[in-house]
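Expect sequence, tokenised fold; for instance:
***
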Amino acid sequence: MTTRKDLVEALRLRYRSAAFSERIKILDEFVALTRYHRKHAIHVLRGEFSPAIEVRLRNRVYDEAVAQALTVLWEAADRVCGKRLKPLIPMLVDAMERHGHLDLDPVIKTKVLQVSAATVDRVLGAARAHIDGQRKRRNGAGSAIRRSIPVRAIVVFGAGYGWAALARAAWLHRCRLHNWADIDTHGFAILDHLRGCFPHAASFLMDVETLLAHRSHWGEEPEPARHDLSRLTTEEADVYDDLRFDRHQPRLRLEQERVGFGWLSAQLHRGL
């Protein structure tokens, strides 16, 4: 079977020696066979591009773009190893694209989503070497130092109504607790339930300002709660009443994933 390289070499000789009218026919034949863009086909037949070199350059560009995308995701995931980053990639790509922090070409996105954990570690090798000064951590002293650094915060994700299971943890009663949930009736019901276990817990970004600032991202809550909640602050109770009595719109919900990163960052910088 004739390879594309053989075809290019054969047609290139004919093309160079042919008259203008014959060149048009050769070009038409070449475009039909290779599906190249007509301008690109002319460059190839003139010898200005080599198909093999073209493929290598294209792959190199794609590889560099994949490496850059993985570096961004790696930084967002707090520089975890490839084995831990791999399962996070789909979620990170979706969230960062949704909030405007990432804009991937479809081909690059497919490669990023299909990359293996081993390839992640290989691709990120240069970034890690740059950060670590090309030196590996030593066991012993470094581990002891890391163990001596106090943990300033932890995140409990997806607890929902399951806080009773953590109520027996005495150390949690000594911590500052902040609850960030969807702004919907069940979000406030969960907050009320949390305060039944940890009365000192405070809400975060569950206020009317956040709700109204993200009006374009409002959604619908399938089965709203309608019962009274006794552990909410006055401000929280006002928002809850607006939701359960459909004062803004029926079954209103603002999912926490829809809150803008800039809005979140500003609130964090103000201090919890």
